[in-house]
Specification:
403 residues; 25 strands; globular
């Protein structure tokens, strides 16, 4: 039985030079069949016969060269049988994977079994994910005996962006011109799913509207405030906590203060005291001041009055062949309800990232939703804004919630 369990960050992308070293002439199709359209059926049968002249000769006329063969399919195979214009006899279990709701910045893994249902060995020529967010274990060159299977481990990384994320993995089997396709899907969502995923108020449109807030874990909850403003329900609901709420928002209520980049919803959900939705508006501007910033905002959850919370902001220090260094030297905030202090910076050399850790301290006596714009300061005078938010309240139900 063939089994490959490692889930490294290497995508199986064999090159022509790798194929040449193995002495496998048809490995050239590993790249060509994935990158170019399939050849026409007649190209699979062998060389194209030269045209016949009027005298019956089969020699090609000197001014009419023989059309070139399609380069995407090889007629021979390391397994000594001709390439077949068909799907290889492999059953994929499961045929696809839907992860459902996943949290931002999580790694979601699955193992596919590739069963050989044919009567001869099958060799995996190439495994190619459709995007950089998806990685697989090294499977190229693996030979699956009849009736046996190989394990293809795959991982799709959920980014910070909210919404549906999908990827395909193409598997090329030596001796076959058609590829197998495995699909991955996930909906990146906070524990409280907010619909629409962002408020598009460009051009003063949609400055008032509705939001649907639903607990993806089925836990009933109540909404305490919308960025500190009282809650207005768009539809009547029974008293008490609910799994889903339809509420109204009004961006003009922030005037004369600036409209925030993220609208923060305060709740009494035990595992999600606050959630946010992106706001796109003509007055909302954002500039990445420190190169490679990965986190624009974050929640510290719920803390009791008198407590503080630790938070982190990550920065990438490598992109492709380019590398750089980010040294965070301080943090500050103009929020009157909190202070911040830098704790440390942790550098992960393998991941080429650095995380700046800081503490947020609510002012004495503060309770409710805390939203603070924190400025991260790096060497060279570079500054990066980070939105920190959470709920400062005793444990238990929110007494200020509107049912």
């Amino acid at each position: 039985m063939i089994s490959h369990h490692s889930l490294g960050a290497t995508s199986a992308r064999p090159t022509l030079s790798t194929a040449a070293r193995r002495g496998a002439p048809s490995w050239a199709i590993a790249v060509a069949a994935l990158a170019t359209p399939l050849a026409a059926p007649h190209a699979l049968a062998g060389p194209i016969a030269p045209p016949v002249s009027a005298t019956g000769s089969s020699e090609a006329a000197p001014d009419r060269p023989t059309p070139p063969r399609a380069p995407s399919v090889s007629a021979t195979s390391p397994l000594t049988h001709a390439a077949v214009d068909a799907v290889p006899p492999i059953r994929i279990d499961p045929p696809s994977k839907d992860f459902g709701f996943v949290r931002p910045l999580t790694e979601n893994k699955v193992v596919f079994k590739l069963w050989n249902q044919g009567d001869r060995p099958l060799e995996i020529a190439a495994v190619t994910p459709s995007c950089k967010c998806t990685t697989t274990n090294e499977l190229a060159g693996t030979v699956i005996q009849p009736g046996e299977y190989a394990e293809l481990g795959a991982q799709i990384d959920a980014g910070a962006a909210i919404g549906v994320k999908g990827a395909n993995i193409k598997v090329l089997v030596d001796g076959y011109s058609q590829v197998l396709t495995l699909s991955l899907r996930a909906e990146v969502s906070q524990l409280l799913r907010i619909t629409p995923g962002y408020i598009n108020a460009i051009g003063a449109a949609n400055e008032q509207g509705r939001l649907v807030i639903e607990a993806t874990d089925g836990q009933p909850f109540s909404i305490c405030s919308i960025h500190g403003f009282p809650v207005v329900h768009a539809v009547s609901i029974p008293e008490g906590p609910q799994v889903k709420h339809v509420i109204e928002y009004d961006l003009t209520a922030f005037s004369p203060n600036p409209i925030p980049r993220y609208l923060v919803i305060e709740t009494d959900h035990p595992d999600c005291p606050a959630a946010d939705v992106l706001v796109r508006h003509d007055t909302v501007k954002f500039t990445a001041g420190i190169r490679g910033v990965l986190d624009m905002r974050g929640s510290f959850g719920r803390i009791a009055p008198g407590e503080s919370a630790e938070m982190g902001v990550r920065f990438r220090e490598r992109m492709g062949e380019q590398t750089w260094t980010t040294d965070v030297v301080g943090v500050s905030t103009e929020c009157p309800d909190a202070t911040v202090e830098l704790l440390e910076s942790d550098r992960d050399a393998d991941a080429a990232t650095v995380e700046a850790r800081f503490r947020i301290i609510p002012r004495e006596g503060f309770q409710g939703l805390l939203v603070a714009r924190v400025m991260i300061e790096a060497t060279g005078g570079r500054r990066q804004e980070f939105l920190a938010y959470g709920r400062v309240a005793p444990d238990g139900a929110c007494t200020t919630c509107t049912p």
